[in-house]
Amino acid sequence: MRVNLRPARLVLLAVVAAVVALAWYSGASHAAPVTLNVNTIAGNNDHDCEPLIIDDCSLLEALNDPKVQSGTDPVTIRFLPSVFGSNSHITPDAPLPLIDAARLGGFTLDATGTNISIDKGNCCFNTDGIDIRGSPTSPISIINVDFLFWDRAGIYICGGLNGGYCPDGLSNVTLTNAGANFSDLTGIAIRGSDVSNVQITDVEIHENGTGAPEGPGQGVYIQGYSSLSGVTITGGDTRGSEGNGVWMSGGTISNINIAGLESEMNKGRGVYIFAENSGISGVHVSGYYGHDNLNDALNVTAFAGVTGLTIDGNSVLQDNGSGATIAAGSGLNNISITGSHFNRNNAGISVDSASKIENTVIEMNTATGNRSGVWFSDMGGAGSGGNFIRQNQIGGSLADGIDVYGGSVTISRNTTYLNGGIGIDLVDAGDPSSGVTPNDAGDGDSGPNGLLNYPVIVDSTAQEVTGTACGGCLVELFMSDGNFSGYGDGNGFLGDAFADDLGNFTISICGKIQNSGTPMTATATDIFGNTSEFSYRFVPDDALEDCPTATLSPTPFASPTPTATPSPSPSPTLAPGQRKQGDLNCDGKIDGLDALLAVLAKFELTLPAGADCTPIGQGSPKFGNVNCSGAVDEGDALAILAFVAKVTPLPQQPGCKALGQLLS
Fold first, then answer.
1. What is the per-residue pLDDT for 162?
2. Between vectors from CA 373 to CA 370 and to CA 378, what angle results, nearest 5°?
3. pTM of this prediction?
4. Which member of 15, 242, 550, 574 lies 3.0 to 4.6 Å from 216 by CB, making a disulfide possible if both were Cys?
């Protein structure tokens, strides 16, 4: 019997063709980019785009072209400036079709040289302005195109074909001078499992989210379920959203850069960055202008920790929430907030962690007219330190200038004035209604900043102020603006000095006071970086005098007859580079200043020392490591303080030289 094999061959050929087609579709070939030129504002879809026929390629026709809907090559849809001029309006007759950029290997909607507005009109209900499905390997770009009045999102970009969940990754999304205004849900939504490398430049996002059925919509919403990284927003304006102006969320969030954005009059937050399951790292916000939002102007919150956050050169005005809120469940580290203006907010700056706050610097900002100027809350207790609130202008707060709830922070050289509460409030359980925590004998209490006792100014002359504070503490002296409590505020730094081992201090005010009877107040900071509240206001009764100047005595014409004087007892001399164990600044004595230097060295900070003094931490063993533990830190400071106080020496490692002995 003869068997006909032709049908089997046909089946085999069909299978081979399918395999080849599948390989081509999956990315084996995206080698021939396609460009379709839109050359009419018509909203119809009568024909395919034929380049040789005048006015034959509308936007709908271009997007429905077989090269877009079934092709496998990257597609660019261009709007010809010669046709559209500087600005044109398109109202399509039907919804724009879904774009599978993952299959195409990339998709670009390009109106360079013009600006195109695409309006829903009366055609399209319960649809997005444009719906693009991408992947980690399919770049998506929209340039100079606005979407107006759409029932869902103006621009919706999703990882994968399941539009509700967007289960796939998404990368290389670029939106330049694009817009999405008056959408019922969200202006721009970008979603996927792992979202990375998103560049948004000069977008205009206005009044979105008014019809959101499950809560207020957002201006810009970027979500990476597992991770979100590499997002840059430069310039642009998000205004009047029912929810947040910009909301970024993800399991883990990293490498976010926002520069020159304006976000105002949103009913949620101006900018909200929220890590749902893990932490946030590497965020930089600069040149941001947020105002008149019903919640925080800027909020960075992580379920876990926040590390590596920089906020600089921003202006934040009149928000019902905080100007900037930084919050974490498991710690804050390496946070920098500098050179920014926080005015007329609920709180100017709020830094809050359920765990430890470390290496956080709030410096050279202005915070005026807020309910509270700066709020520092470390509910996990003091970490390794390195926290500073310094050289800020904090005034006109309805409540306190600076509130500290738990933890440890150095508060230095700030100007605080006209606050309704007190300038610095260390808030603990049972905090007095005035906010002023009274000094306790021996300073044995505990709480935020150790509830360190404030200094007591005892006396003054026209040239100097004297008083008492904790032994070895740094005392900072300020002019006082007459706070209602009688303590503080510190409105104008006058000088500082270290108290001696018994706690006595003297600070020169020569030439620094312009008017007799100027009230003064002071703070103390111990060797661990804890700063007290302001002291009780001291009003001097000395009249101002000219500061004394040094004068030279004339040389006598005849020298007196020399008389024999007893020879001093010989004292050991130090060879070049030789120092006493514990004398960290090489001034010939061991005191509280050396203990402070040991603490500062842990954070790579220094104070002036002798010209030929060995840098702390150098050498072998390390100079300044008096207990020979291997690192210069607070343990060395405690050992030095015990030596100064002449109490039982703290333990040292075997072979370690005792304090006061010469180092070889």
1. 77
2. 135
3. 0.79
4. 242
Omega before residue 612 within 30° of 0, cis: no
Residue closest to 40 by CA, chosen among 31, 28, 30, 50: 50
Q: In angstroms, rounded to a whole number, what is the distance separating the alpha carbons of residues 148 and 183?
A: 7
Helix or strand holding residue 312 (H, E)? strand 306-312
| Angle (CA) 276 344 218, round 5° | 35
What is the mean pLDDT of each successive set of 10 residues along the chain, which is 664 residues long? 42 38 41 87 73 71 92 95 89 93 97 95 88 95 96 94 85 97 94 97 92 72 96 97 95 97 95 95 97 96 96 91 95 96 95 93 96 93 81 96 95 96 93 90 93 96 94 97 92 96 95 85 96 96 62 44 44 59 84 76 71 81 85 81 69 80 77
Strand pairing report for 306-312 and 280-286 = parallel
Through-space distance between the first and last CA atoms of the chain, rounded to whole angstroms: 108
User: DSSP letters of 56-107?
Assistant: ---HHHHHHSHHHHT--S-EEEEE-HHHHTT-EEE--SSPPPPEEHHHHT-E
Comparing CA positions, the residue from 337, 319, 309 lying closest to residue 266 is 319
Pairing of strands 332-338, 306-312: parallel
Cα–Cα distance for residue pair 426/523, rounded to 1 Å: 12
Chain centroid, CA 268 distance in Å: 20
Rounded Cα–Cα distance for residues 504 and 472 (Å) = 9
Quote the CA–CA distance of 142 and 179 in Å, as a whole number. 10
pLDDT at 25: 38
The per-residue DSSP string of 354-404 comes to SS-EEEEEEES-EEES-SEEEEEEETT---S---EEES-EEE--SS-SEEE
Residue 294 and residue 266 in contact, taking contact as beta carbons nearer than 8 Å: yes
DSSP 8-state class, residue 580: B
Instruction: Please give the DSSP secondary-structure letter assigned to residue 441.
Output: G
One-letter amino acid identity for 202? D
Asked, as a colleague might, if the bond just before 621 is cis with ω within 30 of 0, I would say yes
Give the C-alpha separation, 325 to 343, whole Å. 14
